[in-house]
Amino acid sequence: MADKTITKREESLRVFNQAASMYDRIGPGKFSYFGQLLVDAAEIPNGANVLDVAAGRGALLFPAAARVGPTGHVTGIDFAPKMVRETAKEIENRNPRNAEIGQMDAEQMNFVGSSFDYVLCGFALWMFGDSERVLKEFYRVLRAGGHVALSTWAADNPYQTWCHDVQPFVDSPSAKDLPAKIDVRFDTPLDIKTALQRAGFENIRITVEEKDFVYADEDQYWSSLWSAGIRRRLEKMTPELLQQAKKEVFRKLQSLKQPDGFHSASRALFAFGKKPVW
Question: Does residue 116 belong to any structural domain of this protein?
């Protein structure tokens, strides 16, 4: 495995282990919102056997479990052990009898071929060390005629501009070692369609979904950044740079202020494909 791929995997593992306890638990819950929307759009039938890859805190897992009913089953996997532990506790508390989660590497899944009717993956495709290999694994574990449904952030996602706002601080000569760069973000319909076609999928369709999320105040917004993948950029800053970045984010947030809070739009791409029947 190339050093670059190893570094990317290690970076993702570290970041999501650190964010596990508060992942999608601070602010308006955008992953849960888009997770429910993706599951509904996938039209998963009652009784289906579903795999949720990079399940995180269950944004797709729990709505999928409700969708398939008692005769179906949802298996969640995640690379980060702390994320798995947090979600396992939530499964135990909610007590859905048709859902489980375990730690597993999406690039080398321990499932026999043709095991699932649906494979789901929410906002994770660009984080894998080898995304092409992961998509081939999706194809392998799906039954003939099975479906894949995944989500990514759109290239013109307004929320991503905040990543660009903090990037100058990350690139500062006084910052710590830079985080592993992401080569392909799968943030355009063409990128996603091409990747799915190369993996063998057909009948590919892509939709755009957008939602305005409301944050109570500046501190909640700032805290929410630490609960998701963007923390990989924030934690590379020195304390001095971090304070400068925070001040800049707070300043720009004022343009988003409305009577009920700070409104921040997020734009996502949903992609669906089918494994040929032959």
Answer: yes
Task: Identify the domain containing residue 122 by its residue range.
Answer: 3-157+183-215+266-274
Label the pairing between strands 49-53 and 116-122. Answer: parallel
Give φ, ψ of 268 to 5 degrees: -120, 155
Give the model confidence (pLDDT) of 222-257 as tens digits. 999 899 888 888 888 888 989 998 998 899 899 999
Question: Does the pTM of the predicted model rise above 0.85?
Answer: yes
- Is 55 inside any structural domain? yes
Task: Return the CATH number at 120.
Answer: 3.40.50.150
Strands 116-122 and 99-103: unpaired
Domains in the chain: how many in total? 1
Q: Which residues contact 147 (CB under 8 A, 6 or more apart)?
A: 42, 117, 118, 119, 272, 273, 274, 275
109-146 burial: b if 16+ Cβ within 10 Å, else e: beeeeebbbbbbbbbbbbbbbbbeebbebbbbbbeeeb
